[in-house]
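User: Here's a chain of 285 residues. Predict its fold as tokens.
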Amino acid sequence: MAFYLAGPGVWSLVLLLWGSFLVPSPTVVVARNAKRGIASAPSDYQALDLMKLESTSQASWVYNWNDYPPQSVPRGLEYVPMQWGEENIGNLKSRIQHTGAKVLLAFNEPDIPSQSNLSPETAAQLWKRYIQPLKWQYGIRLGSPAVANVQSRWLKDFISACTGCTIDFLVIHWYGQGADNFIHMLKGAHQEFPNYKIWVTEWADTTMNDPAVVQTFLEQTTHYMDSQPWLERYSWFAYTRQTDGLGMQSSMPSSFIPINAICSIEMAISMHWAGFTSIEPSTEF
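Assistant: Prediction complete.
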């Protein structure tokens, strides 16, 4: 899973929350946004927190960096599996049969040594052997490997090496600061690959401990993606909360962990462990 991420010359740890939104009453069902997804990272409360999304979230789909679903996927949310890397790829077909998934995400950040770490050629070979047959047998939609840097040559080299492959959409990740920089990256990706729809399955502002900046970034980037017909889906990194069982969170002091959320219950949770006491979540987003 993509918890330790490479920034430009440094490694950045980003824990972010993306979840249920304030509504006048917990009994009111919020309209779903077909693009918006939940990147559900593991925690001791994963199942409980996912169930909060059933009536209070605009999200329409969820993924968890695995090829099998978390313990409890709320009604109304589509589960999208991922083949994270090469390990256990021989079991992928049976997993797809079991879940009945209609969409599959491929390798997670293969262009980073600490993630799935695959060359474009190796990824193409694995795709042809294990992933492409799922398109022929089940008609499943296939997402490209999720690259950490769409501006590198990795994705172009993969597409060139994967002759005869059906890639229904491209998957990209982005971490940095500033909505303008994020939007510039997306525009560049669309210009580079104009024939593909794009999913952003991880993105976040890495501004530390400034919720107002992060909230503005989140609103601006989400508005942009909602307005682009070629931007098919997105999921903010990530829907989770701190527990002792997650080394990626407990290994850093709370003053170092960014609080990136505009939500209701999740905001209160994240405020508690990040040490913020005066943040008010948006009532509109």
